[in-house]
Here is the input.
Amino acid sequence: MASKNPIRVAVTGAAGNIGYAAIFRLASGAVFGPDQPVALNLIEVGPGLNALAGVVMELQDCAFPLLTDVVATGDLDEGFKDADWCLLIGAVPRKEGMERKDLLGINGKIFIGQGQAIARSAKKSVKVLVVGNPCNTNCLIALRAAASLPPENFFAMTRLDENRAKSQLAAKAGVHNSAVKNVAIWGNHSSTQYPDFTNATIGGKAATAVITDHAWLKEVFIPEVQKRGAAVIKARGASSAASAANAALDTLRNLHVPTAAGEWHAVAVLSKGDYGISPGIIFGYPVRTKADGTWEIVQGLPVDAFSREKIGITEKELLEERATASEALGLKL
Ligand code: LMR
Here is the structure.
């Protein structure tokens, strides 16, 4: 057993499809590294608790060298106790034909309770990643409900969109996806998000110089990435799970390890007005993790008129989501 203190990760929806795909990799060391012990606090509701007992048995059966202890519970305060990270996956999932907005009223209440319990029970330095949709606005709800915690420690996941975008750009350029870098996802994790090809690079060159079919970039690539979640739901009859778990773990790692020079990753954070975005919404930005473990929004990226228009559309949707959620929950978010 390694000698460092464990990183305690609380996971809601731990026995669900995304949770199940995430926790074994967390326990294996794939996220925080091969010398970093991990403790898991697994949280489920009602019927999920039986399945969770089976998941705990499977974790035991893996005999992971880095896993120090596992708490399995239906109680939020016990679940978030002393957490360094909270991975908020549990939410009512979107079904075919539903927009994320439909979920706001249903899931909003869940995230108020979770935010309050995190503030009461987790470490004061806890970081929170919201995956359950609509994740940007759920994150805002949790952040407001946990008003005693630093707002900069709350994140919503746009990394799945970054990964999807990289994969599409690589396929079009005929290169491996590792050659594609710096794909910002602006705004909402929804069909209005703007996957920014204008600042992306492929093999160190501007993506727009490598892919000269700009009509494809504007008219095929963008909607393909925006609607990929819906396409997966249609094909699988269920929301993406393994790729969502993978992106959640990518996000944790991105925020844990300093970002390579000149690069960035996609994550949504509380807007303070950077790039002219309205403050007080959880907005997808290009972000860098600094050597001291804090993060910053990458400044000064060129935003052309095309990008500005797309960014405005997703900003408008987030402002509407905030208004809808405020009304549904009787709160001023
Ligand atoms: C996804 O992007 O696959 C998920 O967020 C599911 C969804 O609702 O689109």
Notes: The domain at 7-156 is CATH 3.40.50.720 (Rossmann fold). The chain has two domains: 7-156, 159-321.
